[in-house]
GGDEF domain-containing protein (Vibrio alginolyticus), 146 residues
Amino acid sequence: GQPEILHHSLTYLAMREGDEVQSLNLPKPQVSASISPLFSLIRNAIGDLNHMNAHMGYQLDRQTRKLQESYRRDSRTGLQNRVALQERLRHIDCDEHLLTLKLLNFSHINEKYGYRVGDQLLKDLSMHFTNRLRKRLGMPAALQLY
């Protein structure tokens, strides 16, 4: 029956993958009965490959976006980093302004209280400035922190 034909078709395909082509003494079933399961097998295999390829493409795109985003964000504060700022400055409009803040003696905080406290201070300051900008100027302004 059909399972036997399918088994013989798979055996034949597997043996054809070797370097030498061996002649097989397979029973000669009716042509219409033997071709249909083989075509179904091939069609299903191609469908599975297409599905796997599309899924891998989606995963690759998602990972690429995550990697690009991590390249432009500071891992401690979540703010955009120097790379993103440099990209933005290349396209800044003449009516836009840039304000910079410098934390003096920040290394003393790290030395006296440790890096964990210093990192938390940076996170807190980032959150404070983000919230203040969002309240005063709206979300687009808050997203422009670097």
Summary: The chain has a mean pLDDT of 81. Helices lie at 2-16, 31-71, 82-89, 106-113, 115-137, 139-142. The chain has two domains: 2-69, 72-142. The two ends are 70 Å apart (CA to CA).
